[in-house]
Amino acid sequence: MATGGNAIRGTRVGAGPMGEQDHGFHADRVAVSYWDALGNETVRYFAAGIPDEEIPDTIDSPHSGLPAGRDKANPPAVAKTEPYKTHLAYVKERRTEEEADALLDDALKQLRERRGQD
């Protein structure tokens, strides 16, 4: 007698009495459409018995990675990204010595007031 593996002869992996109804695919579902700023539509399915406030208003669109909302006419705006700044650009934005001294004095004054010292 030739045997191989541990499967019972005549069976398939995954075969059994369970059908789709046993996996929950027969449950009533509601389709909700989401749109991103580029006009891509994404449809998500939720259980029909779920309250409307538990269905999210926004999701991340799998098409573009942008936020997508349920309102087709007014989708969420594209996030504004700032361009990369060089070190020199940050040096140019530094405060003057007078502004730095004023900020330090103000911070020390607030700290002393909190501690009860004056």
TrEMBL record:
<protein>
    <recommendedName>
        <fullName>RNA polymerase-binding protein RbpA</fullName>
    </recommendedName>
</protein>
<keyword id="KW-0804">Transcription</keyword>
<feature type="region of interest" description="Disordered">
    <location>
        <begin position="1"/>
        <end position="20"/>
    </location>
</feature>
<comment type="similarity">
    <text>Belongs to the RNA polymerase-binding protein RbpA family.</text>
</comment>
<dbReference type="Pfam" id="PF13397">
    <property type="entry name" value="RbpA"/>
</dbReference>
<feature type="region of interest" description="Disordered">
    <location>
        <begin position="55"/>
        <end position="79"/>
    </location>
</feature>
<keyword id="KW-0805">Transcription regulation</keyword>
<dbReference type="InterPro" id="IPR025182">
    <property type="entry name" value="RNApol-bd_RbpA"/>
</dbReference>
<dbReference type="InterPro" id="IPR038638">
    <property type="entry name" value="RbpA_sf"/>
</dbReference>
<comment type="function">
    <text>Binds to RNA polymerase (RNAP), stimulating transcription from principal, but not alternative sigma factor promoters.</text>
</comment>
<comment type="subunit">
    <text>Forms a complex with the RNAP catalytic core and with free principal sigma factors.</text>
</comment>
